[in-house]
Amino acid sequence: MSKTNDNLKSKYFRIEGWMSIILNSILFVLKYWAGVATGSLALIADAWHTLSDSVSSVVVLVGGSLSRKPADQDHPFGHGRIEHITAIIIGVMLAIIAFDFSVQAVVKFSTREATVFGFIAWIATITSIIVKEGMAQFAFFAARKTRSNILSADAWHHRTDALSSILILLGLFVGKYFWWTDAVLSFLVAIMIAYASYDILKKEIKSLMGEKPSDDLIHSIIGSAQETSSIPLNMHHIHLHTYGDHTELNCHIKLPSEMTLFEAHEVCTRIEKRLLEEYGYISTVHPEPL
Length: 290
Known about the structure:
three-stranded mixed β-sheet; mainly alpha; about 70% helix; Alpha-lytic protease prodomain-like; elongated; single chain; Alpha-Beta Plaits
């Protein structure tokens, strides 16, 4: 990554992280107060979900800083995969929150405990929807600008909080008619949080374990490499290794056995330069005798 892009990424990490910590802490106090005042488990669950955003933003700041550390003797490919690990931590946090409030929702439903929502509940919920969706939009924007998995995961964390608040807002309309509204809303919020956790963990674990390049990408790489040479390259054994925003490519090619070492080196160098220019991959090309 260039120094300019690295500085841009650092800037967005700081802005999104501190904005999330401050606004989520304020929203937590507002929603928790509203939940306690009305006895609403759904609002209290939503408050803790909001507070978890503050914790995840601390993780964003720390993980974002560590992932930008340059390569060293122990980590020759850099520290980019810390982004994946950090996103997984956020996903696990969401899973724990979802499980806890699923259990509490079942308990509340079994005791047939009714909830009477007050005016403060309306204010807290509407405020939360507006603020959280605004934060999600900014985090998505920052993720697109920096291609960051951490910011994308944090954006979905904000989005699920906004959606859960919308569910609660709908429940406020019908809460006075059905005693089970709060318990059902709590369970639905938990399901939404669980789905966000699943979506984040599925993507990040897959990236950490390594993914097979798509057939289209392989064909594109082969075509780009072949354009650098007038002789057939027979490229094979193409492997991609992703380290955050840094990707290494290894491949083999077959060259005529009578070709000199210097000529083979020139062919490999041209391929490596082309793949770096076109895909941003740092490549290692291994020649084999045809």
